[in-house]
Design a protein that fits this description.
This protein is α/β, with parallel strands linked by helices and 504 residues long. 33% of the residues lie in helices and 21% in strands. The chain has two domains: 249 residues, Rossmann fold (3-Layer(aba) Sandwich), CATH 3.40.50.300; 242 residues, P-loop containing nucleotide triphosphate hydrolases (Rossmann fold, 3-Layer(aba) Sandwich). A hairpin with a 2-residue loop joins strand 12 and strand 13.
């Protein structure tokens, strides 16, 4: 059988890129592989060795891409890391950029610009490629996105764009790192079917890197587990499924760890500054909110009240306005000042500054992940949460330092405090930013897709943290998630947002 990729006893040239053992791996024709493992287990480093991004001094990969006639490895292997999708090619990104239309100029690319650039590289499309393009545009609703600026896309829409660009080039091997995160259920199901169809019709071998073992699609033929920087032997998907319940138990946290987390969260000292003003129990009050970007309406006549102690889940299709809604509450969206909004019992524009608002809000989102590209110590990233702004890395006070250490212990990342942020895996970075959101013990906690890129163990841990936090006095939570089975048990309200259909 043809071996498209073959590595025998691979050892990286640079010691810091090495796995715990020499790497042995092969991808054969008609095989489609899922690479699974916990956050920080070495999945991304393993993929870098497969693609040649990390050069090997021993056991260099041997490639056989036939029947492809493309000359270079980079042309035959396309890899999308959805950690990179946060950046979307924007070199200098700041948190408010997505919602600030004043940043738009003649040089700002649209989705149409990005896709045309890719199509120009490909050249004249064959009839088969034209059908693929049509199918991709239909599945991902690309026509609706063509005139959107790339910086204004939601995290889910960004993934659709990256996937479309990559699939248009018809690679021999397609590697997707957590392709399903940030996608609504309908799109996620479509993508699984589409990848299976493309694998057959385009003679593409697919490798999926997954943090969530239940995300493995049916077309996958083999599974490779990465544990503690070691590559386990490739097994068939059927064999993997036989032991799926045992694996789920492995990924579960035990009762002792759960109780430890609950006690640590419960023992966090209360911040006396966190209180509702004026005796009002309203945390958020939105009245007939309308938001437009150019001719496109995102939110229309939306009214919503969140009261102290309520725990809300927001759901809806990609592009329905979930993140836009949260940006209004956090005052990151410039249009928020023209809207009828009351926060913590006070009307927006009544004299309360944005910093006074942010003092009471803990926040994490894909946009925030997108904005954190500074390679500084983890402890300083977390401490910045007490400063109410992204990008303020002042040295924490002794009290702040101890508080950060408490929250790092809760999230199981205390050993990372002195490590550089960009040296962490995307899942580990996510835990750091989550700890940052909690560090103020805020009255209002806003969690936009908090489980992005987390393995099953870490998801359960974070759900436990959220549930325990919700039991603390006067705590209110708003959470966005496309997976209803991810909802923490504390969720007691839900709102479904639907895309606005412009009739004019």
């Amino acid at each position: 059988m043809q071996k498209i990729i073959d590595i025998n006893n691979g050892i990286a040239r640079m010691p810091e890129w090495n796995m715990a053992e020499p790497v042995n791996f092969s991808l054969c024709d008609d095989e489609h592989i899922a690479i699974v493992g916990k956050n920080g287990s070495g999945k991304s480093m393993f993929v870098s060795m497969i693609t040649g991004a990390h050069p090997l001094k021993l056991g260099q990969p041997v490639y056989d891409f036939s029947p492809s006639e493309k000359a270079y490895v980079s042309e035959n292997i396309k890899c999308i890391s959805f950690e990179d999708a946060y950046g979307s090619g924007v070199e200098h990104y700041y948190l408010q950029q997505r919602w600030n239309m004043h940043d738009i100029d003649a040089e700002t690319p649209t989705v149409r610009d990005e896709l045309e650039k890719e199509l120009n590289i490909i050249g004249i499309l064959s009839d088969e490629q034209k059908e693929i393009k049509k199918h991709l545009y239909n599945v991902f609703h690309i026509e609706e996105m063509l005139d959107k600026y790339v910086i204004s896309l939601s995290s889910g829409e960004l993934r659709k764009l990256h996937l479309t660009k990559c699939l248009l080039s018809a690679p021999r091997v397609l590697i997707l790192d957590n392709p399903f995160i940030g996608l609504d259920r309908e799109t996620r199901d479509f993508l699984k079917i589409l990848l299976g169809e493309l694998a057959k019709s385009m003679h593409i071998q697919i490798i999926l890197v997954l943090s969530k073992i239940d995300d493995i699609p049916e077309f996958i033929t083999h599974v490779v587990e990465v544990k503690d920087m070691k590559i386990t032997p490739k097994t068939t998907y059927e064999e993997f499924l036989k032991n799926i319940e045992n694996r789920r138990r492995i990924y579960n946290i035990d009762k002792t760890e759960t109780e430890k987390i609950r006690k640590l969260v419960a023992d966090i000292p209360y911040d006396k500054a966190q209180r509702v003003n004026g005796g009002s129990d309203e945390i958020v009050n939105l009245n007939n909110i309308c938001i437009k970007y150019g001719k496109r309406t995102i939110l229309k006549d939306l009214s919503w009240t969140v009261r102290s102690g309520e725990r809300w889940a927001l759901n809806g299709q990609n592009g329905a306005g979930k993140s836009t809604l949260l940006s209004l509450i956090c005052a990151d969206n410039p249009q928020s000042y023209a809207c009828d909004i009351r926060l913590f019992g006070k009307e927006r524009g009544s004299g309360e500054s944005i910093w006074e608002i942010k003092k009471r809000i803990g926040y994490v989102s894909p946009e925030m992940h997108r904005a954190y590209k500074q390679n500084i110590e983890v402890i300083r990233i977390i401490a910045s949460g007490a400063k109410d702004s992204v990008g303020l890395y002042a040295k924490p006070t002794a009290e702040e330092y101890e508080n950060c250490k408490r929250w790092m212990e809760i999230f199981g990342i205390e050993k990372m405090k002195d490590r550089k942020f960009l040296s962490l895996s995307s899942g580990e970075q996510r835990l750091v930013l989550l700890a940052r959101a909690f560090v103020k013990d805020s009255q209002l906690l806003i969690l936009d897709e908090p489980f992005h890129g987390l393995d099953d163990t870490k998801r359960e841990m974070v759900r436990t943290i959220i549930d325990t936090f919700a039991r603390r006095k006067d705590k209110t939570i708003i959470m966005v998630s496309h997976y209803k089975d991810e909802y923490p048990s504390c969720i007691d309200h839900e709102m479904l947002l639907k895309k606005v259909v412009d009739l004019d």
